[in-house]
Design brief:
With 312 residues, the chain is an all-alpha fold. It has one domain (66-302): MetI-like fold. 65% of the residues lie in helices and 0% in strands. The chain has helices spanning 12-18, 20-38, 69-72, 76-96, 98-109, 113-124, 131-142, 147-154, 169-181, 186-194, 198-206, 211-236, 243-247, 250-253, 255-258, 261-271, 275-302. The two termini are 34 Å apart.
Length: 312
């Protein structure tokens, strides 16, 4: 029996000619990414120099790895910032990350499309508020002179000392992150759930399975790849926990509790004038994030998931 010849692969030039219009459409976006994401990376060279703003980068003296001594020698301020960053990152992954998944599953279970749209609109709204507004809202609601404490004073009830309490700072910023971005995070999961074939739910129902079995055997496996993808990307930002949200509230709780790597770079570099040290910390932070993404993606391949890119 004669076997058919394998299909001939197009050459690189043939593929380029075939997709030339798509490549042309992508050119502006690629250009912007190169100009504003990759070209600025060349400035990381100041991590190895004693850079001063009144000198050019080329005129600044070369100091090698001297700026990295705060990391290698365990500078107390750096270690404190690293500790706080890891605590907040742990809370964001363990507490904040699963909430959009749960919200998406709950929204998907609503039978009324009108109610679903209303709930979605309410959940999406906080995402479009800046952190300045979000922090101000929490202060007006829970601050010492906020709405609740004023009401509690009028009714001889115990006061809440959440705002400004170092012991409750991590819980405060975690709740702020949930309130602001949990609703917006449901969009991707709802889109993944909408692609599930309805016949799969019907098959589980025919076999006597209720909503919990449909959730466990159909919905969750359908969005597993999306969960893995977003978790990998989240691990890449494990040392980036939100500069604006934290710097707005540092004055109330002090640096001992609120200093993270992002604010450490700002306070040492822009405020303190140690540009080289800040660049060194930022460079290491970026390298660690890249290593975590690649490592987590490799683990995802071992478990049969696609990850952020296909296995070569």
């Amino acid at each position: 029996m004669a076997t058919s010849a394998p299909a001939k692969r197009n050459t690189r030039w043939q593929r380029f000619k075939r997709d030339r219009f798509l490549l042309l459409l992508a050119l502006p976006g690629v250009t912007l990414v190169l100009l504003f994401q990759y070209v600025p990376m060349l400035g990381n060279v100041i991590a190895f120099k004693d850079y001063q703003p009144y000198l050019t980068i080329s005129e600044s003296p070369w100091v090698g790895f001297a700026n990295f001594e705060v990391i290698f020698n365990g500078d107390p301020a750096f270690l404190n910032a690293l500790k706080n960053t890891l605590i907040i990152s742990f809370l964001q992954i363990v507490v904040v990350f699963p909430i959009p998944i749960a919200l998406a599953l709950l929204l998907n279970s609503l039978l009324s499309e009108r109610i679903k749209r209303v709930v979605q609109s309410v959940l999406y709204l906080p995402h479009f508020m800046s952190w300045v507004i979000v922090v101000a809202l929490f202060q007006h609601m829970l601050g010492n002179a906020g709405i609740y404490n004023n009401w509690a004073r009028q009714h001889d009830l115990p006061l809440l000392g959440i705002i400004g309490d170092p012991d409750l700072f991590f819980a405060l910023i975690t709740s702020q992150a949930i309130w602001k971005d949990a609703g917006w995070g449901t969009i991707i999961f709802l889109a993944a759930i909408s692609r599930v074939d309805l016949e799969l739910f019907e098959a589980v129902a025919v076999d006597g399975g209720g909503r919990l079995r449909q959730l466990w055997h159909v919905t969750l496996p359908a969005i597993r790849s999306v969960i893995v993808l977003l978790l990998i990307l989240k691990l890449g930002d494990v040392l980036t926990v939100g500069f604006e949200q934290i710097v707005l509230q540092q004055g109330q709780v002090g640096l001992e509790t609120s200093e993270v790597l992002d604010t450490y770079v700002y306070n040492r570099g822009i405020v303190g004038g140690n540009w080289g040290v800040s660049a060194a910390v930022g460079l290491v932070k970026g390298l660690v994030g890249a290593i975590l993404v690649l490592g987590a993606n490799k683990v995802a391949h071992l478990f049969g998931e696609r990850g952020i890119y296909s296995k070569w």
